[in-house]
Amino acid sequence: DKCLLKDGKFMMCVPGLTSGLVPMYIGEIAPKAYRGALGTLHQLAIVTGILISQVIGLDFILGNDGMWPLLLGLSGAPAVLQTILLPLCPESPRYLYIVLGKEQEARNSLYRLRGPYDATADVEEMRREKEEADKEARISILSLIRSSVYRQQLIVALMMHFSQQFSGINAIFYYSTSIFARAGVGQPVYATIGMGAINTVFTMVSVALVDKTGRRTLILAGLGGMCFCAVAMTVGLRFQNDYSWMSYVSMSAIFLFVSFFEIGPGPIPWFIVAELFSQGPRPAAIALAGCCNWTSNFIIGMTFPYIQGLLDVYVFILFAGLLLCFTVFTYLRVPETKGKTFEEIAAVFQKGKKKLAEAPKDHAELEQLKTSTDA
Known about the structure:
- It holds the Pfam family Sugar_tr.
- One of its GO terms (molecular function) is fructose transmembrane transporter activity.
- By secondary structure, the protein is mainly alpha-helical.
- The chain has a single domain (2-89, 136-357), classed as Up-down Bundle (Growth Hormone, Chain: A), CATH 1.20.1250.
- The protein has 18 helices and two strands.
- The chain has helices spanning 16-29, 35-56, 68-74, 76-85, 93-99, 103-114, 120-134, 141-146, 151-165, 169-174, 176-182, 188-213, 215-239, 246-263, 268-276, 282-311, 315-333, 342-374, and strands spanning 2-6, 9-13.
- Strands 1-2 form a two-stranded antiparallel sheet.
- Helix 9 (151-165) packs antiparallel against helix 15, helix 9 packs parallel to helix 16 (282-311) and helix 11 (176-182) packs across helix 12 (188-213).
């Protein structure tokens, strides 16, 4: 993940392919008890890279007319290192067993990942998942969209990524310097770096909490907190010309907004998709969710200046309304996946479908009972 900060403007480019494959790989190799924490490390690596690039992109370091080619070239160093180290990473045990049917190779991969231990329980879980996977064909993106079997999971997965991007977080990231300048900050570039530091710290908090508190709880807390901060940000921007202390309200709201984002809505959508789907539809679901995420990112990046010009200081009220909707959706539709196997998570959605399927039948029975009683 490479970022540049030049002339106070923040730009970020995260390769779409790796942003989908890395969380999927982590989800498949991680022990059930630590799946959330390891999945959140993906986001921690991103925000750490952002913070480092913000610092070295300062004008007196590398972010100047003479040194920016070196700054750009440095982004290739992590890619070279990753290319060298990637062959040392073991193949996913779930892929080896469930897709290729190589049980012994899967066991060897588990031993490489976790050291000598009794892998019977993990192999048995993969065996059950393989039995279910063998009953279903390899699912393409188009088939996944059309399928009614995975519709609930797909809706939840896509809404998680919509909530991440349409929360307004990238509007703050991309235009943080101008937002801080408008809030009356003398050196907005340093405030932007401070925001990057908070970004990193609260991602660490998420790593520590996600397997204790749960995914659903952290997402609800994050979205609800961001909604409150968006309203506070609007109030601060609206009245900062009348009351000088309101600029502190605006700045505090921005920092808290970022903090709440990194507690849940930032890291969790990237790995929860891998938890919601079995081995068959998982690659297609992650590809679709990633496409949804980056398309939403592009829309926000391109349209925010025009929306801001139209709504002026009330621009974050729009995001507050969206965040409220996402919070309600998460409360009603997103299940808790903490500590559950992939089979158990799938069963949660199947149970919900059975309830929906039985509802018309129950209604018909009530009508029949009512008719017979009247008679």
